[in-house]
Specification:
0% helix; four-stranded antiparallel β-sheet; mainly beta; 300 residues
Length: 300
């Protein structure tokens, strides 16, 4: 008999080295389950109804579905060579995956759980593809193109390309969708892009090998993981200044905040753990051991 669905909010951590997904209860900060994740799970999204996880299984060139109620692998969907970042539309209808080997975005319809269509991008080697909170735009970081590709999702086409620093990776948006924040790993900067004009409105110096981005629900702060410095920078969005730096584990990567914005969970790829940051005091509360080589965090 399938187990009951997990209550929210839980943090889901894909561990690419151990082929599992660790499930953390954010109320207790305890790992309460380990789910199968395919052979090398990376990008991850949780379905709008909380029934399914959508996981990019990078070496098998597919999206792996995981049924949360039964805690088991479900169907797979062929995507193309080397899928990476995954995100879900605000209405829960679409799941998108960046396909590095084909320079395109694969789009899955969650109603049928099948591939609906693909969208080409101009940039080379897309790593992250992220919906704006209003669902109108998709920003794609082309890590070998030093640019961000911008797609109008309704018209299914690319409408802009914005040159940024070397090796762009993580992307986050203000809650009102007015600005996007892009971490550039080899430039050690965060680029701030106006989502109407597509102009760069600020460049913010971050730490060494800046890569992951998370945006506080209030829109007042943006968090940047610095892989080479083993810390997280806190950016004040009003001043575009770094106002704090919090030490975490080795090779911090992708991150996520609880819905209330009180805690930030940071995947530390080389420490095999997740650091939990109290956003009010800007201090690390604890480290939670997970699987090998955690790639990111999604909370729902």
């Amino acid at each position: 008999m399938p187990l009951p669905l997990l209550a929210a909010p839980f943090a889901y951590v894909p561990n690419e080295g151990s082929a599992t997904i660790s499930v953390i209860d954010t109320a207790t900060d305890q790992v309460v389950n380990e789910l199968p994740g395919g052979s090398k799970p990376r990008g991850l999204a949780v379905g709008g109804d909380g029934r399914w996880l959508y996981v990019s299984d990078q070496p098998n060139n597919r999206l792996q579905l995981v049924e949360l109620g039964a805690r088991k692998l479900g169907a797979t969907v062929a995507l193309g060579e080397s899928p990476e970042g995954v995100s879900i539309s605000p209405d829960g209808r679409w799941v998108i995956a960046a396909i590095e080997g084909k320079n395109e975005i694969a789009v899955l319809d969650t109603r049928t759980r099948t591939l609906a269509f693909s969208l080409p991008v101009h940039g080379k080697n897309p790593e992250h593809a992220v919906f704006s909170p209003n669902g109108r735009l998709v920003f794609v970081s082309a890590e070998e193109g030093d640019a961000v590709d911008i797609l109008d999702f309704a018209s299914r086409k690319q409408v802009a390309q914005v040159a940024v620093g070397a090796r762009p990776r993580g992307i986050g948006f203000l809650p009102d969708s007015s600005r996007a924040y892009v971490a550039t790993e080899n430039a050690n900067e965060v680029f701030v892009i106006d989502t109407t004009s597509f102009a760069i409105v600020a460049r913010i110096k971050a730490g060494l090998r800046a890569n992951g981005i998370a945006v506080h629900p209030s829109g007042k702060f943006v968090y940047v993981s610095n892989g080479g410095d083993a810390n997280v920078s806190v950016i004040d969005t009003a001043s575009n200044q770094v106002v704090a730096t919090v030490p975490v584990g080795q090779r911090p990567w992708n991150m996520a905040l609880t819905p209330d914005g009180k805690k930030l969970y940071v995947a530390n790829g080389r420490s095999n753990n997740v650091s939990v940051i109290d956003t009010a005091s800007r201090t690390k509360l604890r480290d939670i051991a997970v699987g090998k080589l955690p790639w990111g965090v999604v909370i729902k």
